[in-house]
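Reading group handout, session on sequence-to-structure problems. Before we discuss, look at one worked example. The prompt was deliberately terse, the way you'd type it at a terminal:

> structure Carboxymethylenebutenolidase homolog

The input record follows.
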Amino acid sequence: MTSDAQPFLYDIGKRTDYVGLGHEEQVEHIKAYVCKPSSVTDKAVIVIHDIYGWQFPDIRYITDLVAAEGYVAICPDFFLGKKPWTSADHWAEFRDWLKDRACSAKKIGVIGFSWGGMAVHHLMLKNPELKTGVSLYGIIRDSDDRYNLLNPTFFIFGEKDHTISYDQVSIILLEKKLKQYCQVEYRIKVYPGQIHGFAELKPDDMKPRDKPYIEEARKDMMNWLKTYV
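And the output record:
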């Protein structure tokens, strides 16, 4: 882990063409991007990518940030070689595309973004061997038992998220139902003024007013992982 004298590594430079500090390897039948810390550790975190896939520069950047905090960080290709979503695809076809993608992991700690956040929520309901999960702007909305978490879970949202708005029922209902049914530690935090995907923004895409919240979300994510992993 980083010491008090070495603050959390929020930025690894401009990332327009970010390649990553780790490497690609085969983990059983799945390809994965792996980044290891500078010292030996027995702690690992699985990073579940969003709909844009495991090779997307932003998700590799986040994977490197996790590794910089002392974890072996692994971002598998949960699409199993299938084409990720692209900005050229039509959203009307998204449901059909989603049906054909896998989302399962059985490791120590798990974090996920958007589509990956939904996968984390799912894993926290089904995999008691996992230590913890962090779901960033992704929740399951169509399951009656989605509040019976088996592991400590941290939900991160942006106040101005166009997909999961605090003004809508989603987050308010999540808070109410977790308080009613959940038997493990959980936390829900909404970051003022932030949009969907804010925690992954490139430095050159950050607005000055948003940067403190982006850094806060990343720090909160790592502090949660350190508590349970």
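Points for discussion. First: The chain has five helices and eight strands. Second: Helices lie at 57-68, 94-99, 115-126, 169-181, 211-228.
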